[in-house]
Each structure stands twice: as C-alpha cells, then as structure tokens.
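Chain X:
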Amino acid sequence: MRKAQAKKLPLAPDPKFNDMLVTRFVNNLMWAGKKSTAYTIFYDAIDRVSKISGENGYEIWKRALSNVTPGVEVRSRRIGGATFQIPTEVRPDRKISLSIKWLVRYSRDRNGKTMADKLANEIVAASKGEGAAFKKKEDTHRMADANKAFAHFKI
C-alpha cells in the first residue's frame, strides 16, 4: 500500500515580477543548480521579447505560455493484449508543467547565439501561434482527436 502523497512545497515568487509561475519556469530552465544564471537568461529573454515586439515582454510570455498549454493528451492503456491510445483531459497542474517544459525544450533546440536569444525567439513565435512548442501542442490535440473512438476506455 502507498503512503500519503508528498506535500507540494510553496515556491517563492521571483524578485522582478513577483510571480510564482516565473519561478517555476526558471526552475525548469535551470541547469546544474545555477538558478541565478537561469534568472539572468529569463530576464534577458523577456527584455529581448519586448524589443522585438514593442509590447510588454512579460505579457507576451504569459500569452505564449497559454498558447502552448494543451487541453487533452493521449495515454496508453493495455486492454486484452492490444495497446490503445486513450484521449484524456490534462490536469491543471500538468497543463502548466507541459507548456513550460515544451517552451524550454524547443527553445534549446532553436538556432541562436545565446539561450536568451533562443528563448526570446520561441516565446515570440509561441505568442503568435507558431514555433515548435505550439506545433507540439497542435500535434497532441490532433492525436487525441484521431483516437476519440477509444475515449470510452477511460483510465
């Protein structure tokens, strides 16, 4: 039998925007425990986004995050020797996690000189409904739509 589920530790809001979501994003961006470096990269990227678009970089980042957030995903379930991809609703906490992970991952894969450049370009693309992270969300939704017939096998 499993023990009680671990309690979620509260995150401290970031110093500039006083937002816990920014801290969560920076924690995903961070490599080798270098949090101050991750904050520097994030804030540089937000400044570049505001220069590129001429709008508030923080608002564009939030819009990009909401554009990349998935609503449904497919989960594998084995039934009678066959494996089915069953579309399921994504939990609110997981929605945010997935969108953050996709933005960070696909910004790392982009072409650019610095990570701040790459992240800024991916944020701008995602806010417009373009880019690899947005495409990942679209593919996830398309996959769930294609497997709608198996929705009655709910997990």
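Chain Y:
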Amino acid sequence: MAAGAQISGPISSTYWWQGEIHRNEEFLILMKTTRERLDDLVEVVRAMHSYDTPEIVAVPIEGGLADYLNWTTEETAAASPDG
C-alpha cells in the first residue's frame, strides 16, 4: 500500500491526552502512497499501531519529479490490500 517509507527518530513528542500533558519518545514515519491507496494504508497502520489514536495525516502532493510520482503510483497499484 506504500511504495516506500522513511523513519526518523527517536523524536521527542509533547501532547495533551486524556486531560494531561504527556512527553514521550516516538518515531516519525513518512509513507509514500496514492490517494487511491490511502484508506487501505490508514486501515493497516491503525490495526498495527499501539496507540488508540495514532497520528495519521495525509499531505497532498502538489508536484514533483514525474518519474518518482509515476513509480509511487505503479508500486502501490501492484499491491493487494493485504500488503
């Protein structure tokens, strides 16, 4: 469902959760997919993530290297919903 991913971390996160401020060490993962595969990817990440409400956000791509964008589309189109 993702053509590739980048993992950064550990990073320090501070957030408000259930009425308290929390500070934790986390990892940031950027996954490359298409709009058509986004819902499938979100479903898999939610199922595998340890948090009740993981941070999952989608950022639209306004442009980029056509070869890279085509590669992302080709790689995610070949994947089944099971990975």
